[in-house]
Fold this protein.
Amino acid sequence: MSDETEFYDLLGLKKEDNPDFNAIRRAYKKMARKFHPDLNQDADPHKFSQINEAYEVLKDEEKRELYDKWGKEGVERGGAPGFGGGGFGSMFDIFGGGGMGQARRRGPVKGEAVRQKLQVSLEDMYNGATRKIRVTRTRICSGCKGAGATDASKVSTCSSCQGSGFVTSYQQLGPGFVTQTRRPCGQCKGEGKSVDKAYVCKVCKGQKVVSEKKTLEIHIDKGMGEGQKIVFEGEADERPGIQAGDIVFYLTQAHHDLFTRDESHLKIKKNISLAAALTGAEFTINHLDGRVLHVKSKKGEVIRPGQVKMIQGEGMPTYKNPFEKGNLFIEFTVDFPKKIPENIATELNKLLPAKGTVVKPKGKEMEEVELQEPDYTQKGGSYRESYEEDDEMEDERGTPCTAS
C-alpha cells in the first residue's frame, strides 16, 4: 500500500478511516465552498483545481484503489508504476522481445483484484455484523513450488515456440501478399516451457497451481454505508511470477420496509388519524436494534399533512464513532374521514376556528356549484354541448354560417 495521502488531505479526510462515498462527497462540498474562486475572492484557483482532482479520483472506486496502492503515479499509469500506460514497451512485449522501450519492472506483478458486491441489511449497518464467505482461489502448488515438475531441472524451453509462448504461421494469399497469424503455442499451452512427462508434478498435474478454499470473515462495522469497500489483501488468485491480488467487497444496502437512510439520518413515513393530528399523536416505532420507541406529540400541537418532525439522536451511528448518531425524521400523512354526519359537522364548527363566509361580489351574478368525485372517463361532452348551444344562438341572430 502507498503511504501517499495528498488527495485525502486536500479534502480534509483521513486515509486510515476508509471513508465511504457519502463522506467523500460531503468533504468535497465543504472544501469546494471554501476554495471556489467565485465564492471567495481570496481563494487560490490552483488549490481549487487540486481539490477537484482529488475528488475525481477518490469518488471512483477503481481509481481510488489504484491511488491507495500506488499513489498518483499508479492512477496516471492505470496500475503499478512501471506497468500499464501502453507505450513502446507494451508493443515490444507483444512480440516477445525486450527493446529499449520496455517498461522497467519493480518486483512481481500483482494480480487483478476480484470485486464483489455484498448486500447487507440496514440492521447490519446499524448494529454491526460479521459475515462468513467461502471463496475458492488458486495458490502456487506446494509440491513443485510452481515449477510444474518434481525436478526443476526437467523444465526446459519449449522447442516449438523457443520460449515465447506463441507460434507464428504464414500463408501466401497471392503474388507479393502474405498473411501472418500469431497464436498461443499448442505444445506448451502458451507457457514457453515444457516438462518431461516422467517428471510432471502429481499434485498439480503440471498446472503449477492448485485450487484452495478459504473462509473469509467480513466485519461490517456500525455506520458503514452504501458503496463502502472491505478489502482482503492478497486473497485472490496467485500464479508463478504473479503476486496474489485482492478480494474487494462493496457494500450494497437491501431495501427496508420501514426506514430509509440519508447518510447519517433515518426517515420514516407515518399515517395518523385526523383525531390524532388534532388532539395529539401517540404511537410506537420498532427500531433497528430491537428497541421500541414510544412517540408522543406535544400537547395542543396540531400535525399538518406532509409535516416532518424529528427525534434527535435516533438516526444511524457514525462510522468509526458509533456513539455519535444522526436523527430520525418522521413525515406525517393524515387519514381524513370520507364523510361526517351533519350533527358532528355542526359541533365541529363550534369547536374549530371559523371557516369564513362567502361574500357576493357587487354587480355580478354568482352561480352555486357542487363538488363531485372526478370522472376521468368523460371526454368533454358537456363542453361540446355548450359550444353547440352557442352556435345555435348565433344562427338565430343571423350570423352567416359556412357549410362544409
Observations:
- The chain is about 25% helix and 25% strand.
- The first strand starts at residue 109 and ends at 110.
- The radius of gyration is 37 Å.
